Amino acid sequence: MNTIESLIHAEEMAVQLFDEIEKIGLIKAGKTENQLNSEIFELAKEMFGIEKYWHKRIVRAGKNTIFPYRENPPDLIINNEDILFLDFGPIFEEWEADLGKTYVLGENAQMLKMKADVETAWYEGYEFYKNNRNSIIAADFYSFTCQLAEKMGWKFGHIHCGHLIGKFPHERIQGEETLNYIHPENLNKMSDPDKSGNERFWIY
C-alpha cells in the first residue's frame, strides 16, 4: 500500500476499536479516567496486538476536558451526567492513526449540543479544506475553525487545530514548531511538500 492507503487503513482500524469500545459498553459512570484508559489499552491489544502509541493515550472527563494536551490533570471519576473525550494514537503496522471522539453520559442539553457541534464543525472544516486544499494556508484554516466555533456559540480553545501525520516515527512534532501544525502562525500552504519533496498528510 502507498502512504495514503496505509494511513486510511490505520484510521479504519482505529474506527473499529472505537466501535468496539461503544459496542461492549466500556464507557460507564463510576470508573476513573485512568481505569477506562487501561481497559481501552487492553482491548486494543486483544483486538489488534497494539502496544505502541505515537502519543499518550488520553481519556478526559468533566473539567479535565478543557486542559490542553500537554497537561496531566488529576485523575477524575466519570459521573452519570458527564462529558468526556477519548484521544488515541495507535500504531498499526508502523502507520499512525489518530482518532478522537466525544461522549456524553446523561441528558445535559449543553453537553449534548457541544458533542453534536464538534462533529458538525469537523465536517464543515473538512469540506472547507477539501475545496481549497491546493491553496489553503494553515493559519487561514485555523482562523476558519475559530469562526466555526463562534458560529455555533463556542470559543475555540486550543493553540492549533491539527498536525502532520505519517509513518511512525513521523516527522517530529517538537515544542511549538508551527510548520508541523495547523497553527495561527503557520503561513505556509498545507499542500507544500516536506523537506524531501514528499506529500504531507494532516490530522484535523
Give a verbal description of the structure.
This protein is an alpha+beta fold. It is built from four helices and seven strands; from the N terminus they run ααβββββααββ. The strands form three sheets. A three-stranded antiparallel beta sheet has the order 1-2-5, sandwiched between helices. Strands 3-4 form a two-stranded antiparallel sheet. Strand 3 (91-92) and strand 4 form a beta hairpin.
How do the helices and strands line up, and which of them pair or pack?
Elements: H1 3-23, H2 33-48, E1 58-61, E2 82-88, E3 91-92, E4 95-96, E5 99-105, H3 109-131, H4 138-151, E6 163-165, E7 201-203
Antiparallel strand pairs: 1-2, 2-5, 3-4, 6-7
Helix pairs in contact: 3-4
- What is the CATH topology classification name of the largest domain? Creatine Amidinohydrolase
Task: Please state how the strands of the largest beta sheet are arranged side by side.
Answer: 1-2-5
Number of domains: 2
The CATH homologous superfamily of the largest domain corresponds to Creatinase/methionine aminopeptidase superfamily
Order of helices and strands: HHEEEEEHHEE
Q: What is the percent of helical residues?
A: 25-40%
Label the overall shape.
globular
Mean model confidence by pLDDT: 88
Structural class: alpha+beta
What are the segments in which pLDDT stays under 50 over at least 5 consecutive residues? none
CATH class type of the largest domain: Alpha Beta
Q: How many whole angstroms does the radius of gyration measure?
A: 17 Å
CATH architecture of the largest domain: Alpha-Beta Complex
The number of strands is: 7
> Describe the biggest sheet?
3 strands, antiparallel
Count the DSSP helices.
Answer: 4
What is the strand content? Answer: 5-15%
Termini separation (Å)? 23 Å
